[in-house]
Amino acid sequence: MFGVIQMRKGFETIGGQWVGVLVLLGWMLAGPALAEPVKLDPRHWGHEAGEKCVSCHSKASSGLASQWRESAHHAAGVNCMDCHQAERSDPDSMVHEGQIIATIVSPKDCGRCHQKEYEEQQGSVHAEAFALIEARLPALADHVGGPIMRAASCDQCHGSRVGVQGDGRLDPATWPNSGIGRINPDGSKGSCSACHGRHRFSKAQAREPEACVRCHSGPDSPDKEIFEASKHGMVYAAHRHEMNLDAPEWVAGRDYTAAPTCVTCHMGAAGKLPSTHDVGMRNAWSLNSPVSNRQFLVVFEDGAKMELPEGAEIPKRGAELTRLDGTVGQVKTLAAPDRRRQAMSMVCLECHAKSFTESFMSQFDAVVELFNDKFGRPARDVMAGLYAAELLTPTPFDEPIEFTYWELWHDEGARARHGASMMSPNHAWWEGMYVVGRNFYARFLPEARAIAGERADELVDAVIGAVESHQWLNDPGQSSPILGFARDTHEEAE
Amino acid sequence: MAGSGLFSVITRPVVIALVIGGIGGMVFIGFLNEFHHFASRNEFCTSCHSMTFAETVYQQSAHYNSASGVRASCGDCHVSPGLLASTWDHVVGATDFFKQLFGENYDDPVINALHLPESAFMAREWFRKRDSASCRYCHVQEAIQGERTHTAAIHREETEGKTCIDCHTNLVHRPVPDERTFKRDAWNRMIEEEFGLEPGTADRLLAKPRPE
After folding, report:
1. Staple A224 to which of A182, A213, B28, B58, CB 3.0 to 4.6 Å?
2. ipTM of the complex
3. Could you tell me which chain B residue has the CA closest to the CA of A90?
4. Looking at beta carbons, which residues of chain A come within 8 Å of B181?
């Protein structure tokens, strides 16, 4: 009853415009607001050979058998074979103790029971995390590092393209791997165990911020650090025991109100907003690009998805569109950046007022626009000019300014934008936009001018001169006590 | 009467025949035994060039290099223990010799590698039919301790209806998948890549009868 009242209240507060969003989202996700119960008939699991697996693996690798015994899978009678069984024709099938199995349990395999989660996850920025960077990888991983770094680092987060050798073994250069965009031998993309630690697959564990930390930490995406330094993280740390993390359903505002975690805002159910395994669906901006774009989400009839920047030609429903992999898909539905923002905002509204939410979002948007206008676009234009004038070689990272530029948007710029998006003042400024500015003025511009030489006016300063926010450079006489050398204090001291 | 009848049968020529036959039989048994040892030696097997490919990998395995100094020869694993069984295996094994002479050019490393899976499947089937007798000649299942915590328990409690080869494959020679999940295409591509051959070469080599 309480839940119903809460929902009704929320419904009235959000007004008519939001109702449309709810309907759209509900339809898009084609699922209820709560964790999807498995619909498959239980007769389909409880493979008869499973008992033997457990008997031997309780001795051969007792840790994983014990973890499984603690799992909801065990409680429901789901055993090793239910997940690991394979078809003879599967590229990675093998015979193990007389059974045809595969080591890798792909999202497609999990999707035999967890169909809704599988469909949502396919095409998401998580599932595509390797495919999106595969072509760019060699320039950084192989040249600057070495191919061996892929398995040890890049692939750990982005996933690997798992190779099956002719002798049936999984290529050790690509496996083990639980990167979230792993391309599996069955062609499916992703790894459920990236977040859901095997073999326990605990709901509570996946709802913790720690589920995201392996990848969302460090200089280029310090989301763990940002969350911990934010008010959300502060409240979470103090009230973690009130988070109801083990609850079968976990709707923000109903099953818990103490604090949000990563999952709450990016995936979780909140009020009437349904949960989703498409982690990027609520993201109005791309934040990890040289210049941020507001982005449309295109959902195709076959379940594939694609991001389109605002300003690109936006297709209509039913239209055909060529995708990044070259295939043509039919557009099923589109979510405009505003709609995606509205979805994210619905989570905020479970705890915050509408005006509070809107004002926060406008602060965040302004930071992204500042980065774009003042640093992202001008730096990109300067670099483009240097490449066009053949003052730089096409090979990335063989000239110092390429590292400077890369860090400007990929590390420092991402920190600033993520910091503003999740309310860490330190990351927005000292770790973020301050370092962007320092890099831009003290490294990037001097390096670019040196490379441009006689053409510096045309290739560098003309670009900067056209940007209003850099005009302060034209007045060298503005004194301030900030460095301890302000003119009036200086004079007084004398 | 019977006794005198028997004695009347044991005439001088009969005694001579029995002695010669007995000695001849012992010599023959001795010969078979010696032949078994001779024909089980690595040097004998690898006197055909095609067998040296298997030997190279074997020399990296624990059955060649063990801390205890025990070294299993080709025949220790691939010829059954016991005089009759070993003799039979050597007779059947002679088909390898005829294949070497009249079959594909197994001395070619590519041809050899392409045909390896079928050899592996046959060898596994051979082990299975004999309940891994040659393994068991050295290894006593009840005595296996292993290095991991529960290896002994697994060999006591989890082996019903199984024989050594069911679990222990790809120990010595180049790894080959189980016959039930073997993918010829993937194997051919691997061999082509290994020897720097154009894709499709392997399939052509397998389809083509041996050039005269």
Report:
1. A213
2. 0.85
3. B181
4. 88, 93-95, 100, 168
Contact A86, B180 (CB under 8 A): no
Give the contacts of A365 (CB within 8 A, at least 6 positions apart). Answer: A285
Q: Is A182 helix (H, G, I), strand (E, B) or coil?
A: coil
Sequence-ordered list of residues with C-beta below 8 angstroms from that of A294, at least 6 positions apart, any chain: A284, A285, A309, A310, A337
The shortest CB-CB distance from B175 to any of A95, A164, A169 is to: A169
Q: Where are the domains of chain A?
A: 42-194, 354-481
One DSSP character per residue, A98-126 reads TEEE-S---HHHHTTT-HHHHHHHTTSTT
What percent of chain A is modeled with pLDDT above 90?
Answer: 86
Q: Is the pLDDT of residue B50 over 90?
A: yes
Which residue is listed with tokens 């003052």?
A: A391
Contacts with A423 (C-beta within 8 Å, 6 or more apart), sequence order: A226, A230, A231, A232, A360
Question: What residues of A are in contact with residue B188 (Cβ under 8 Å)?
Answer: 166
Q: Crossing angle, helix B184-195 and helix B109-129, to 10 degrees?
A: 140
Does B127 fall in a domain? yes
Q: The tokens of A48 are what? A: 């008869």
| B99 located within any domain | no
**Predicted pLDDT at B159:** 94
What is the C-alpha to C-alpha distance for residues A275 and A269, in angstroms, rounded to an integer? 4
Angle at A306 between CA A212 and CA A370, to 5 degrees: 70
Confidence of residue A25 (pLDDT cuts 50, 70, 90): low
| pLDDT tens per residue, range A44-55 | 899 999 999 999
Asked if residue B3 belongs to a domain, the reply is no
Backbone angles phi, psi at A85, to 5 degrees: -60, 150
Token pair for A468: 């209003």
The number of domains in chain B is 1
Q: How far is CA A51 from CA A24, A55, A79, A85, A198, in A?
A: 45, 6, 8, 14, 19
CA dist list (Å): A406 to A136, A158, A291, A329, B20: 13, 19, 12, 33, 94
Asked if A95 and B180 come within 8 Å (Cβ–Cβ), the reply is yes
Where does B67-200 have alpha helices with state H? 74-78, 83-102, 109-129, 133-138, 151-157, 164-167, 184-195
User: Which positions in chain A touch B190 (Cβ < 8 Å)?
Assistant: 165-167
Domain range for B57: 51-70+104-207
Give a yes or no: residue B185 inside a domain. Answer: yes
